[in-house]
Amino acid sequence: MKSLQVTGKKRRLRNRIELLDIIIFIILLAITLAIILPFLNVLAISFSTQKDFMDSRFMLIPKKVTFANYKAILQDGRLWVGYRTTLIFLMIGVPLNLFLTTSMAYGLSQPGFPLRKFFIYFIIFTMMFNGGIIPLYLLMKQINLINTIWSVILGAGLNSFYLIIMRNYFMSLPSSLVESARLDGANEWQILFRIIIPISMPIIATITLFYSVDRWNEWYFAMIFIRKNELVSLQLALRSIVMEGQASQHFNYTDVNAIEFSDGMKMGAVLCTMLPIMCVFPFLQKHFVKGILLGAIKA
User: Under CATH, domain 68-295 is a member of which superfamily?
Assistant: First the structure.
């Protein structure tokens, strides 16, 4: 009798688990479709003509594939200027961001760091309150960095949220590693670069991805600090191209039958912005989840 009751309970539990799995699968499938379908729609519109877009604004496969939208974007020299400027932001800004974040996070993770709690609370305070853009602009003007790449790079030198994540990750590492290195005569820089960083690649990859996305999408500081056309960032270049495309005053087509399609150019601009980051993300994906979870566990 007891065996039958146990068997019945196991069967009910198994049926309950299977029902829960189905519900979770449906929810995940809905989230996946909510992400994939808009992307496919953007991709299809970027290869569509004006007529096809007006017939069906939501499409997954273009009826007639055309490269006129991408041709119109690529023919403008500002796009290449934007790519060059944004790549400079990446090549100089991201290493600087990582150096500042890593070195400060390591210092704040050590129990013997002077005034450690004060600096931690001060950093948290800056996450909620800041001086605003006007004092920052006046500072950049005073040190003669307006209309230079350095105004954008130094204006976003360190992110407080990323700093706290990296500090928490460093605090989760065994303290015996640091103590052993100090007994062997290693200084703090040697400990950081030879011991801490090599075993912290998950969080390093995660923060690198965060900073890379931030620098790639840089537009606010570039709009405030830079007025030179030869230093325009990618996002602002694409914005100006799309705005002029909407006014039908910028592009000159060799084909007289070509129709300027502002919505197609918008979607093409979105894809031009997304693709480089999408190509980098898979290489860091294996470290991403582990790094962000471990960095958020210990406060």
Answer: MetI-like (1.10.3720.10)
